[in-house]
Specification:
Structural class: alpha/beta
Strand order of the largest sheet: 7-4-3-8-9-10
Mean pLDDT: 97
Shape: globular
Bound molecules: tricarbonodiimidic diamide
Largest sheet: 6 strands, parallel
Radius of gyration: 17 Å
Order of helices and strands: EEEHHHEHEEEHEHEHEH
Length: about 230
């Protein structure tokens, strides 16, 4: 295929056609990467996730310059919490529960300051933002229909957290026939061991869920084309 770009990846070279590929930026919300949000209420050190911001900015810029589709997601719930399963609301012993007022607004509620995407990675132009009530970006959203309408078959996957929303989304995408490349320095976890093992699980067994590569390899493929 003439337009196939090649990325050196684990477990083997990943090929994608930019015209049929979307960059997915998963849940880069204040609620996960800034103090006072959902991630912190669960007991996590949110500074762990901030290292993905700089490489992800570069990837966003290069992807936009290549004219490719960019789609952002946000995890969160309606103000009346009617789309939040009671089991999710009750789970664990967070310092604040979903819907409680926090320093950046109600925790994980749509429309609140804390629920929105961080300024550094704010969507631009006509980039789609998919609001999702679950961890996976396909569950209870229009994402699959949107991708099929755009004839997208491959996904470059970034965002947080590696073993939760990124993994769930990659698994959902893989079962639907999409080929996923996860950029290892553009996904982040609160747990270094989950980051490592989460990435290994994607590429193991001949790429059971997809491919993994550092963002530099993806950027190199885009540069080679231009
Ligand atoms: N807690 C955690 O690691 N993640 C989430 O709850 N959501 C996402 O990963 N976005």
């Amino acid at each position: 295929m003439a337009d196939q770009l090649l990325v050196e990846a684990d477990p083997y070279t990943y090929g994608f056609d930019p015209a049929h590929t979307a960059l997915l930026v998963i849940d880069m919300q204040r609620d996960f990467v800034e103090p006072g949000g959902f991630g912190e209420t669960l007991g996590n050190d949110v500074t762990m996730l901030r290292q993905v911001i700089a490489p992800l900015r570069e990837v966003l810029t290069a992807t936009r310059n290549a004219g490719m589709t960019v789609i952002h997601t946000r995890e969160g719930h309606l103000p009346d919490l009617s789309d939040c399963p009671p089991a999710k609301l009750r789970r664990g012993a967070p310092s604040l529960r979903i819907g409680d007022p926090g320093p950046k607004g109600r925790i994980l509620v749509r429309g609140e300051y804390g629920h929105d995407i961080i300024d550094e990675l704010a969507p631009t132009g006509d980039e789609l933002v998919i609001d999702k009530p679950g961890k996976g970006a396909f569950y209870a959203t229009d994402l699959d229909r949107v991708l099929r309408d755009k004839d997208v078959r491959s996904l470059i996957v970034t965002g947080v957290t590696t073993e939760v929303c990124v993994h769930t989304t990659v698994r959902e995408a893989n079962d639907r026939g999409y080929e996923c490349l996860v950029l290892s320095d553009c996904v982040g976890s609160y747990f270094p061991e989950f980051q490592r093992h989460g990435l290994q699980m994607i590429a193991a067994q001949g790429g059971i869920f997809g491919w993994v590569a550092p963002s530099g390899h993806y950027l190199k493929a885009l540069e080679a084309r231009s």
